[in-house]
Amino acid sequence: MITLVAAISKNNCIGKNNDLPWNIPEDFKHMHKLTLGKVLIMGRKTWESIPENHRPLQNRTNVVITRNNDYELPEGVERYDSIQEALLKHKDEEIVGFGGQKIFEEMILIADVLEITHVDQVVEECHAFFPSIDLNVWQETWRKNYEGFNFVTYKKI
Ligand SMILES: NC(=O)c1ccc[n+]([C@@H]2O[C@H](COP(=O)([O-])OP(=O)(O)OC[C@H]3O[C@@H](n4cnc5c(N)ncnc54)[C@H](OP(=O)(O)O)[C@@H]3O)[C@@H](O)[C@H]2O)c1
């Protein structure tokens, strides 16, 4: 199964200045729970946006997509030059599309589930966006509302 895990603003922003536009500890915990034991597919910039002391993300398979074959990664972290190659290597495993924009754009076409944190903010000067969620394709199946953000699960119809 392929799940995309993302936190997105009201204007679909996911990143600004190669960082998250917010700091929501509950969302980190939620993301942690959703990703444990799974294969995380992320773009090179998302990898670089994770603080060095937190990467690789523990108890998960960290996969970085880059076209740079010389890009150095710590032992145990996998590098591929396409999403397809990573998926082939990990077929029959639980896959998480972990961002950023290009990864989400490609993987939303093949994903089964979206685990979205909707953040009640509009982010100016955003540089990375999540694709729009077409409600003819995605059905909300679960929701938990908090002050300032909501966790929502969507399944492909
Ligand atoms: N809110 C969220 O849930 C969330 C989640 C993840 C990330 N983010 C944020 O998003 C931002 C980073 O995302 P981003 O969109 O700027 O960059 P990104 O997608 O993480 O990384 C882009 C890079 O990944 C590689 N790449 C991506 N797609 C590829 C493909 N199909 N084939 C080969 N290589 C590919 C390329 O690396 P090379 O240039 O090395 O070839 C490309 O330059 C940060 O601000 C981060 O904090 C937010």
Helical content stands at: 10-25%
Q: What's the structural domain tally?
A: 1
**Small molecules bound in the structure, each named once:** NADP nicotinamide-adenine-dinucleotide phosphate
Approximate shape = globular
> Could you tell me the mean pLDDT?
98
What name does CATH use for the topology?
Dihydrofolate Reductase, subunit A
Report on the biggest sheet: 8 strands, mixed
Instruction: State the helix count.
Output: 4
Number of strands: 10
Radius of gyration: 15 Å
Low-confidence stretches: none
Percent strand equals 25-35%
Give the name of the CATH architecture.
3-Layer(aba) Sandwich
Order of helices and strands: EEHEHEEHEHEEEE
Structural class: alpha/beta
The CATH superfamily title? Dihydrofolate Reductase, subunit A
Question: Tell me, what is the CATH class?
Answer: Alpha Beta
Q: Going across the biggest sheet, name each strand in turn.
A: 5-4-3-6-1-7-10-9
Determine the N-to-C terminus distance.
15 Å
